[in-house]
Amino acid sequence: MKAKNDAIDANNDLTDEEKTAAKEDAKAKADATKQAIDNATTNDAVTQAKNAGATSVDSVNPMPEAKLAAKKTIDDALKAKNDAIDANNDLTDEEKTAAKADAKSKSRRS
């Protein structure tokens, strides 16, 4: 469990809420495995419960959603801005380059 929690914590693309949900999911799966082990009546049943539980806990691989969605929104807005700059025939190439650099700089601060 500690290794799974450490892996979740190390994923900087996850928000705190996503990390908490993933840890709760992993804990619930670990608790269910421990219960299955407690209920096992043979060595084979213990081994099967242990192996199934390890697979179950390992299957918790949270996908970052909030940060990736926000980054995509910024990337889409930057692309739209660059397209608008390119479409503006009143700007010189130098002005277009400067405007794109400004837009890119501002998108990184977001």
Descriptive report:
- It is a single chain.
- The mean pLDDT is 92.
- With 110 residues, this protein is mostly helical.
- Helices cover 80% and strands 0% of the residues.
- The chain is rod-shaped and about 80 Å long.
- Helix 1 (2-10) packs antiparallel against helix 2, helix 2 runs antiparallel to helix 3 (43-58) and helix 4 (66-87) runs antiparallel to helix 5 (93-109).
- The protein contains five helices and no strands.
Coarse shape: rod-shaped
Helix amount:
over 70%
H/E series: HHHHH
Backbone CA Rg = 24 Å
Rounded average pLDDT: 92
Share of residues in strands: under 5%
Distance between the termini: 36 Å
Brief overview, please?
This protein has helices at residues 2-10, 16-39, 43-58, 66-87, 93-109. With 110 residues, the protein is mostly helical. The chain is rod-shaped and about 80 Å long.
Question: What key attributes describe this structure?
Answer:
110 residues, mainly alpha, 0% strand, rod-shaped
How is this fold's topology laid out?
Elements: H1 2-10, H2 16-39, H3 43-58, H4 66-87, H5 93-109
